[in-house]
Amino acid sequence: MINWTIETIILDLKYTWKISRNATDQKQNLIVVLSDGIHRGYGEAAPNIRYGETPELLTEQFRNIQQTLQDSSLSGELLLRVFEEYSIAYALRFAIESAWQHFEAKRKKIAITEQLGIPAPEKITTSYTIPIMDPAVMKSFYAENKLDRFPFVKLKINAQEGYEMTRYLASFCNQKIMIDANEAFSNPEECIYFLEKIKKLPVEFVEQPIPAGMNEESTYLKKYSPFPLFADESITHSADFGILKTQFDGVNVKLMKAGSYMNGIRLLTEARKRGMKTMIGCMVETTLGIRSGMNLCALTDYADLDSFLLVKEEPFQLISESDGELHFNTNVR
Question: Is 20:135 a contact under the CB 8 Å cutoff?
């Protein structure tokens, strides 16, 4: 007999995680477990208030479908029908689907990538993200966290301090910088002015500078940007790639937004078919969620999978990092 459970975990962070729209010192995520007494599959949900998700909402939604899941003959098609019928939040969809996929892989005694029908990843290197902070403390933050070991540094910015933060980071950082604005610029002309000011700095790309839904403005911005632009908030569980291609050069796919491994694979594949660069990103997650992102890295050009490193006491220890490279640990769940 199969059994589905869910629990909330509290993740205290090593420092304040601040982006353009909010800041936090703690996260509450949820862990979903599927077990038949012999095999277990695990999945993580990282609720994001940007999409109306809270731990309380996701727990309630899980309780509403728990008995249906336990009484059913499980398949990917069944899970999708249940998700749609009950309008399940996408972070919770991913946790449930992930638990099922890993359960099936263990039951079949195959690798999770074989279960998903994708190549296994080879070398995985991740960027490291610096949250919004006073530029005066950025150099010491960089040194204390030994960020020179990562191939890229991602910098969270807001519209007010973005230029000073980028300019100062570039003055002592030897890596290329990924700029992540999280929709900070409401005016495309203001954003173009910012991009022109930093165009001689070592910037790899700029991620989601203006809000999702500003389609005409995003198309206009792409024409005048000196850097490649990546979509983040503009790509969730679905995307019109015909439009997206006119606005961005690449996409940041996050499994918590995609709602399943299979949909994440579809989004990455569709982007690559259109000649767009691909990145796998994350919310604030444990190594359980980050491991899931790593499984898709054969389909990506970049990995932004560092958030487990800002958790004070990471509970699972499923992966490790050395010199910016991520490794699967042997004590897998």
Answer: no
Cα-only R_g, the chain: 20
Q: Which residue has the tokens 């990538």?
A: 113
Helix (H), strand (E) at residue 59: helix 55-71
How many CA atoms lie within 13 Å of 210's alpha carbon, on the beta-carbon side?
22
What is the rounded CA–CA span in Å between residue 223 and residue 249?
11
Tens-binned pLDDT, residue by residue, of the chain (333 aa): 899 999 999 999 999 999 988 899 999 999 999 999 999 999 999 999 999 999 999 999 999 999 999 887 888 889 999 999 999 999 999 999 999 999 999 999 999 999 999 999 999 999 999 999 999 899 999 999 999 999 999 999 999 999 999 999 999 999 999 999 999 999 999 999 999 999 999 999 999 999 999 999 999 999 999 999 999 999 999 999 999 999 999 999 999 999 999 999 999 999 999 999 999 999 999 999 999 999 999 999 999 999 999 999 999 999 999 999 999 997 555
CA distances for 164 relative to 83, 168, 197, 265, angstroms: 44, 6, 10, 37
Structure tokens belonging to residue 192: 């173009």
DSSP collapsed to 3 states, 13-27: EEEEEECCCCEEEEE
3-state helix, strand, coil in the chain (%, to 5): 40, 25, 35
Token representation of residue 147: 């960020």
Q: ∠ CA(205), CA(143), CA(282), 5° rounding? A: 45
Two tokens, residue 50: 């940007």
For strands 128-130 and 152-156, give the pairing: parallel
Q: What is the pTM of this model?
A: 0.95
